[in-house]
Amino acid sequence: MICKTARLTLRELQLSDATFALRLYNDPSFLQHIGDKGVRTVEDAENNLQQGAIASYAQHGYGMWLVENQQGQSMGMCGLIKRDFLTETDLGYAYLPEFFGQGYAYEAAAAVLAYAAEHTALKTVVAIVSPDNLPSKSLLQKLGFAQDGQVLVPDKNEMVDFYRAHLTKKPDL
Question: What's the sign of the alpha-carbon dihedral 27, 68, 8, 67?
């Protein structure tokens, strides 16, 4: 377990989460705002998890984490991504539509940022978002991110809005 909030648990993704990842990666909102990862089978999802999140845990000590509710139901993913085309670490998140608009994305992202401040050497975290993804932009602003121009996503050849937030450790009491 990475962290726990009032309503959520964030934990490392495992190959056994491939069925959930397959569903999330092929959800219309994921495809529209994040893109098509070419994941069509459970085996594709396992490979994606192995080469993405699981490899990131080993290489960076962080990655995308599974977000579950108190009943253990997989809701989405939220975490820290080190992308080749960005110099700073990126906050990433994606949820199934049935969990939109209930504050889960904010709760999980705030927990990830607190984790980053306390358990990593990161001083800033960035985020990228499609210009037309207004709910995501609103979430980033609520989390304390400020827009800092745009950046080109090479594999999509698309400009996206670029946000940055400074991490602050809580003082020891």
Answer: negative
> Could you tell me the CATH superfamily of domain 3-166?
Gcn5-related N-acetyltransferase (GNAT) (3.40.630.30)
Q: 83-134 pLDDT, tens per residue?
A: 999 999 999 999 999 999 999 999 999 999 999 999 999 999 999 999 999 9
The torsion defined by the Cα of 149, 152, 156 and 161, in degrees rounded to 10, comes to -10
CA dihedral 99, 95, 136, 55 (to 10 degrees): 150
CA distance to 45, 113, 169, 171, per residue, from 117 (Å): 30, 6, 5, 11
What tokens were used for 27?
């959800």
pTM: 0.93
